[in-house]
Write a structure and sequence with these properties.
By secondary structure, this protein is an alpha/beta fold. The chain folds into two domains: 64 residues; 183 residues, P-loop containing nucleotide triphosphate hydrolases (Rossmann fold), CATH 3.40.50.300. Helix content is 54%, strand content 11%. It contains eleven helices and five strands, in the order αααααβαβααβαβαβα. A five-stranded parallel sheet has the order 2-3-4-1-5. Strand 3, helix 9 and strand 4 form a beta-alpha-beta unit.
Length: 269
């Protein structure tokens, strides 16, 4: 082993900065000097100091990776499971939501269907479960049914459909919200069906709809295609019914009738 050359403090600091830039270690670069002073005061060994500063780099990279996953998922807003008021959705089983939060269903490629009227918390749960999945290192994408169909139709027109379908196939979790809010024409229904077929029993799809399965035929022009979509989305699926009473409507009524106290936490569509 070569002898370690003694460096002045300014030279050592400059060498640390240069090495960290070359090795792409921004957290070590920013924390090495302050932590060295703390380590000296605390009497840490060289090994202890090295472990501390490298742990900071690992933690910061994990934080950036989680943030990047959440950004890539394109959630319309940030919602957390901790902010979901179970009292405002008595039909939702807290134990079921806690189990889903672990992400085991995603690893198993199991579908998830949230069925309920507007304002009963479907989007909140979908987004919150998606964020939990991102923070666990999974690749997630959130989209509405209408936006997904439009994207697929544009890709088909530009002869890039296979590329887009392949991109969606590589996701660990695809979240399709607002299914049933607008009707899907036969072409769009076939394109959506292609995505679902590509992921069937292999990668999870989570869907939010304001229609029960028996009414999905009103969304898809072809009854046989509607039946096939329902079959793929319900086979082995977790199904949560969020109810019929809107949180927002209940809150509006409480404003008119102060004796009725609205729930404190928000649940959204």
């Amino acid at each position: 082993m070569n002898a370690v050359a003694a460096l002045s403090e300014p030279a050592a600091e400059a060498a640390i900065v240069a090495a960290c830039r070359a090795l792409s270690l921004p957290t070590v670069r920013s924390e090495a000097i302050p932590l060295a002073e703390t380590a000296a005061t605390a009497g840490l060994t060289h090994r202890g100091y090295l472990a501390e500063v490298l742990s900071l780099e690992v933690e910061e990279r994990a934080t950036r990776r989680r943030a990047r996953r959440i950004g890539e998922a394109r959630f319309p807003r940030i919602k957390r499971l901790a902010d979901f008021d179970m009292a405002a959705a008595p039909g939702v089983n807290p134990a079921t939501v806690a189990a889903l939060a672990t992400g085991a269903w995603i690893d198993a490629g199991t579908p998830l269907c949230l069925i309920g009227d507007s304002g009963t918390g479907k989007s909140h749960l979908l987004i919150a479960l998606g964020i939990a999945a991102c923070e666990q290192g999974r690749r997630v994408r959130y989209t509405t049914c209408a936006a997904l169909v439009n994207e697929l139709a544009e890709a088909a027109d530009e002869r890039a459909l296979s590329k887009v379908v392949g991109r969606y196939a590589r996701l660990d979790l695809l979240i399709v919200d607002e299914l049933g809010y607008v009707s899907v024409d036969p072409r769009g229904a076939e394109l959506l069906f292609q995505i679902l077929t590509e992921r069937e029993e292999r990668a999870s799809v989570a869907v939010g709809s304001n229609h029960p399965f028996s009414e999905w035929g009103a969304t898809f022009a072809d009854p046989r295609l509607a039946a096939a979509v329902v079959d793929r989305m319900t086979f082995g699926a977790h199904i949560i019914e969020t109810g019929t009473e809107s949180y927002r409507l209940r809150t509006a009524r409480a404003v008119k009738h102060p004796g009725l106290k609205p729930q404190k936490k928000e649940t959204s569509t």
